[in-house]
Design brief:
434 Repressor (Amino-terminal Domain); eight-stranded mixed sheet; 415 residues; Four Helix Bundle (Hemerythrin (Met), subunit A); alpha/beta; single chain
């Protein structure tokens, strides 16, 4: 997410940190570039202007500090201000202390409300919140059926009314409402009536992160009409330019609570402004990486790999294959590497998007003898040719795999 914006901002800030001394004109020039990149990313003009003015005022003061690198200080200021644009601090859902918590999902047609309802229900189920889903979209014929199918996938019941969910002792109820292709008075009247009837604890706008400035207009329209308590941004795994995420909080004052990062029901992440600011500036998100690893990686297998890596002999090709499988379990390679500090957007674009390549790697390694896997240095031209034929892959892929293995072994030893 935010690939282009991340690459551009990281390049500007890298030039600042590369200088031992910064002048006021250096900061002004850098902020002029940052302003242009934010506007190109669809960040609203008013939000961009306020951001640049705040950073300039604080950065000029930072130039007077002698004990701290001025370039690094400006980078921190930019990070903190981007985090403030995104809401400042993480904001979770507000649950009722007694009785059922009703969550009303609103948004335009096509924004992903129904899928998001299922994603949120899955998350609440894992948190022991006993969720139920209510199909309140009476205009799109397939909406109720889609919600029932998604509910069956995640084993969450779907009801026709909130009172039915309450009777079934659901602690949280997620209401999937009808949308339109655009905001109109009729839809808002219906939503106000529905809100009055079900008395929701949360009114969350599901907004398409790909729509740029339109998402900001939509958020403002819904907030003025029904009073939002939060936003869920969808489709941030695509080529979202970032403007919607960076503008919505500044324009409406409501927090972004979750982001959708894929089609599957587990692809919903809590939104953390500080960590997202780090990702945008190419600083990675190690906390998210650790959380992802904790949830997916086999701890015993990981410990065995670590012991092998620390040993004098180091990893062999069998260990290499196990390590790749562990990484694949965490998700697409680009997503995992994007959480590492120092991996910029341009480097991520060079990584092949096809994660099925692991199957080819596995075929190559399994075509080797145990002796060859344990000691790849014995692989000469004739052995490589035999392995390539056995795996049904070209010799060039065998050579590339061996190069990757040696690089990974060096990395593991350093770690």
């Amino acid at each position: 997410m935010f690939t282009a914006l991340s690459e551009q901002l990281a390049a500007v800030l890298k030039r600042l940190t590369g200088r031992g001394v910064l002048s006021e004109s250096d900061v002004t020039e850098a902020l002029r570039e940052i302003r242009r990149h934010l506007l190109e990313a669809d960040v609203s003009f008013e939000v961009t202007r306020g951001f640049v003015e705040r950073v300039r005022e604080r950065a000029i003061g930072a130039l007077q500090l002698k004990s701290v690198s001025p370039g690094q200080q400006v980078v921190k200021l930019v990070h903190d201000e981007i985090a403030a644009l995104l809401g400042g601090s993480r904001s979770g859902l507000d649950f009722a202390s007694v009785g059922t918590t009703v969550i009303l999902l609103v948004g335009l047609q096509g924004s992903g409300k129904t899928t998001t309802a299922a994603k949120l229900a899955r998350r609440l189920k894992l948190e022991q919140k006993a969720p139920g889903l209510v199909a309140a979209d009476l205009y799109r014929p397939a909406a109720a059926e889609q919600l029932r199918q998604l509910g069956a996938q995640i084993d969450v019941p779907v009801f026709d009314a909130v009172r039915d969910a309450e009777a079934a002792r659901c602690r949280t109820v997620i209401v999937d409402t009808a949308g339109r292709l655009q905001i109109d008075a009729e839809m808002m009247d219906e939503l106000r009536a529905l809100k009055a009837a079900v008395n929701p604890r949360e009114v969350l706008l599901v907004a398409d992160g790909m729509t740029g400035q339109d998402a900001v207009k939509i958020a403002r329209g819904f907030h003025d009409s029904v009073g939002l308590t939060g936003v869920i941004l969808t489709k941030l795994d695509g080529d979202a330019r970032g403007g919607a995420a960076l503008s919505i909080h500044g324009v409406t004052g409501v927090p972004i609570k979750f982001v959708g990062v894929g089609e599957k029901t587990d692809a919903l992440e809590p939104f953390d402004p500080a960590r997202m600011a780090g990702r945008i500036l190419g600083q990675g998100d190690v906390v998210a990486l650790v959380e992802m690893a904790t949830a997916t990686v086999d701890a015993e297998a990981a410990e065995r790999l670590a012991q092998k890596a620390r040993s004098k002999r180091g990893m062999d090709l069998h260990d290499f294959l196990v390590a790749l499988k562990q990484m694949q379990a965490m998700g697409p390679m680009k997503k995992v590497l994007g959480l590492l500090p120092g991996v910029n957007a341009k480097a991520l674009q060079a990584i092949p998007a096809d994660d099925k390549r692991l199957k080819h790697v596995e075929a190559i390694v399994l075509s080797m003898t145990p002796e060859e896997r344990a000691d790849p240095t014995i692989l000469g031209g004739s052995r490589k040719l035999r392995i390539a034929r056995g795996a049904g892959r070209p010799v060039q892929e065998v050579n590339r795999l061996l190069d990757q293995f040696h690089q990974m072994r060096k990395l593991m030893k350093r770690m």
